[in-house]
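[09:14] KT: can someone run the structure on this one? pasting the chain below
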Amino acid sequence: MPIKLNDATIKSISALGKQFSDTTILMHQAIAKKVGLSGTDHKYLGLIIQNGAITAGELAKITGLTTGAITGLIDRLEKKKFVKRKFDKNDRRKIIIVPNYGNSMKLLKNVFSDLQSRIITHFSTLSAKEIQIIEKYLVSTIEIMNDLTNDLQTNDLQR
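[09:31] RB: done, structure tokens below
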């Protein structure tokens, strides 16, 4: 049953949320530096890997980056052999960005295996109910953040 949150609880949750966000960014920056990427290039590479082959236009739409910024991103990732460009066989004006899973995993596997192992070790100390609560929080927070991102990208944010 939902409860009414008091100011102290809201302040505490907000502070923890900010700390979690900042810690996530710093961790991914450290991972990126370890493999020779910027933090943003590392995260966008993750999006490319997650989405599979994707057009530059689709990537621009997902990220909110300009097509010029996407070109620079792909240039940097292609130079390091994390992705390659392919022409669409039906429309040669379209460029498809294809992730190189082998090269990406070669560099990132050890770091993410360690992270996953640490998280699994921690989660093994939790009850099934606690894990359900965490899953519910993550799913709902992702939905909220995706909605806000969409609103910001389409300028539909109500003030």
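[09:33] KT: thanks! Helices lie at 7-34, 39-51, 56-63, 67-79, 101-123, 128-153.
[09:34] RB: yep, looked fine to me
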